[in-house]
Specification:
This protein is mainly alpha-helical and 1021 residues long. The protein is built from 45 helices and 13 strands. Strands 6-8-9-10-7-11 form a six-stranded parallel beta sheet, with helices on both faces. A hairpin with a 5-residue loop joins strand 1 and strand 2. The longest helix has 28 residues. The C terminus is likely disordered.
Amino acid sequence: MEIGFGILGQTVLLLHGNLGVKPVRGRPGKVLAALLAQPNQRASVDTVVQWAWDEQENPPQDGLGTLHQTGARLRQIFQSEGVDPGVVSIGKGGCRLGVDDQQIDYLQFRAMMSRAREFHDRGQHDRAHVEALAALRLRRDEPLADLRADAADQWRIRWQRNEWVPANAFVAAQQLLLGQTELAVARLEELDAAHPMELSLAKLRIRALMAAGRGLEASEYFRRIRRELQESGDLHAADDLLALYNEVIKPGAVSFPASVRPVSRVMETPEVEEQVLPVVWHVSPDVGGVVGRDEVIAELDAFTTDSAGLPRDEVVMLTGAPGAGKTTVALRWAHRAAGRYPNGVVMLDLRGDGQTAGRTAADVVELLLELMDVQVDQIVSPVARAARLTRLLAQRRMLVILDNVARSDQVEPLLGVLAGCTVVVVTRQRLSALLAARTCPVVTVAPLSVEAARELLERRIGLRARQDPVGTGGLIRLCQGNALALTLVAVRAAARAGMRLTTLAEALRDADMLLDLGNDGDGPGRSLRSAFTLSFQGLGSAEQRTFSMIGLHPGVEVASDAVAAADGRSVSNVRRSLDVLVAAHLIEQPGDLDRYRVHNLLQLYAASLARKLPDIEQARRRLLEYYLLTAYEAHQVVYPGRDRPEMPQISEDVVAAQFTTPAAARQWFLRERTTLTTSVQLAAQAQLHEIAFTLPSLTADVFDRHGHFGDIITGFTVAASSAAAVGNAYAEASSLNDLGHVLLLMGQDSRAEPYLEAALRLVDEHGIGIGRVTVMLNMARRHLHAGRVEQAVTMARETLASARALEEPERCGAALHRLADALLEQGGHQGEAIELYREALAVREHIDDGPGRILTHIALGDLLTRMGRQEAADEQCRKASALVSVSQHLPAAMKLNTVLARLRHAEGQDRVALQHAHRAVELADRSGHATGRGRALDTLAQILRDRGNLDDARALWLRAAQLFRDRERVGQARRIEALLEELDFAVIPQARDGDTVAMPSPQLLLSGRAQRRSAGTKDPM
């Protein structure tokens, strides 16, 4: 391993196999540490901020923007050290560091300790000792030393308690087994001082003192610790310590237990039956090919062993969704842990799947007695049987795994009988009653990672899977980490040796074929549908209906309000049903109290159930009406001054979600973005065309604000088709116009023009005056982009006159702004343009058009900057900035930063100007705004040109000109090409006193060179 990451101390890059370290300081180091503490998981922006900002620090107002900047600095650090900068992912959906677990020191620590325990289980204590010492040396200082937030403190506490202390105790135990008693005593004294009153350490220290021949000291230590435990009220621990005293300190006791091996049943017969208890081994053969479960197995080890590596009398719940592989993991772990249980391992199926009658607690007692060769028929009373089993198990180490548990009452009566055993309860249910009665750790078997899924398929399928990564990737995406699905797919692929994996993946896109995979007539069904049906049949009728409703939902995440709308029941009743589904692991509740997520395979199964509902059409309509009505309410809160489309008839029992602030409404649009876009398509497929052509008009404004142009295009494409299907010319023209509008924003003018022309024909044919004004505004912009300035000015004046005649203030404001833009491009009309911008501002302020005001303030600030009126320009930029901070409009923020870069450059503040220019480029990338990127690069090039950095200015201008040419912005491209020609005759100016200017970001220049290489052009640098 050449490069690794360290958080067991200061945050560092571990270079060349840990021989050297490079600290990552400041905010990048803190963010890196936060992501390393939860690698390969997507953490929300708020979560990362909570980790990376100390309690006494004020968190950033724009958390996402700040993390984007920090991420850029991290990528630069990574690139300079040879680390792939692409492993850092920061976006609206969260932050993620995608690295191999074994590149991170604390996960290396965990893996090394797991290997050490394996050596211990095999009796190789010297190798266990060496491996564990190597793990301890990975700690350089206090873990997460750079973080002082509460989340980091809690992580440190858990790591110390669950991993660091047990690892040190494990080393001491190995030293005792190797006869290194004084070393063990010294280590345990240090641990005891750092972690007083830790029972497992106290017990181990007593054993060590006895092994070292320091019996008096052991007795004194025992009395002191026991007294302290009694005074603190921990009587159970005090009694536990007394039992140890009776075992090792009293005369004749053994000082330290040797490793105990399972004994053969062929032994000399003792006098008492309990002393001849045979070894019980009732477990299926070990399973091979288990992948991606090291962390689950490590958790089971941690919860079932004490600091010395000896078994605990503990009950652990192993749970997960249907098909996750719970039984397989439990079986694999049982074989690994068997060496710790000299009296045996038993794994019993309690038949909680409903295929046959489930086993009761009394059945389990009877089975265990039979396995111990007890004549059960001679013990009639169930109470007597339980008492006999309790005596047999007393003072014996056994592992009992209760598999396929459906209800708490199957296991709760057993816990007293099995009190001296390690008990693992395997269930697909949450078993809330058991958890309420007894605090026990819960280990969840999650879906397999992509890497583990690939390994599983390659092992089962063989060379074909490695030779066809595309086909293998398709199968992985279908299965989404479900272990049963992956296994069934691998079996099918192996049986169809002549079929390409890509072909198989395409065939399995049929939901019924995928769900029924494995039903080949060979015995009971082993398909996904069979596994899911077992869980479904255990639900009540209300919960079965609610689960079926989730099959109607167009996205994998859903709020209870939406499910209630489809179900037709109250939200409170539906929430109770959703809680039952969460407990059954049929859905998840990932964090937000009112949001639920369903695995894609379970959603396919739910959809198959929904198709059987007698009221499926009504339920689907109510669900889509809920999203339409809620989108209308949210748009009204975010844009109170904007026009909204006329709503179709909505069912009386459908209630929209309510929003108290614009921010909450905006967040709803973004959170439900995928669902809303898919809902438009679903409505069109269901012939609910009024919903299909109305919904995109309500979502487009927020999607545009955040650069989600693909969703807007999909929505309006479907909307235009639906409107045409029902002969609604107004809605069709509006959708076509809006399609053209968003394509213009994206710089795809040639694609936009046919849509605008089609919209214009429709509004003219049907005499839709306001529609004509709207389309002509966009046509004027198209002329301006294409360099047809005279046509743009003429059309803008005509549009303004029409808008005034119609008394449409929103269109008037837009037309005034558009005419000012065209006049400036024509040249020589700066005074008139200022007046038009000011009139547009007045109109937009009157109708509370926030986004429109932002754009006009920015345009006015840009014009005043070019006129040298910097103070007035600064005032306009400040007003725009205040509005942008509220609206979070990415394209507007990008334009504002471009103008601020020009303004600060004009004021002589080139360092600040460069920062704004880089920020504009970053925002253009995030919002997918190619022409905005071109403007930002143009501004950056002008600053560098004026500072004498002609080569970098030329490189950036070449890229900007190409961006404008590719998007048919002829006027902009010609202007920049003229500047490039002037560079050959430019005189390098003297730098201003006291001011130095940084080179452009390496990413800007590197990405530009990469683009030119791919295009076959020579790098001008």
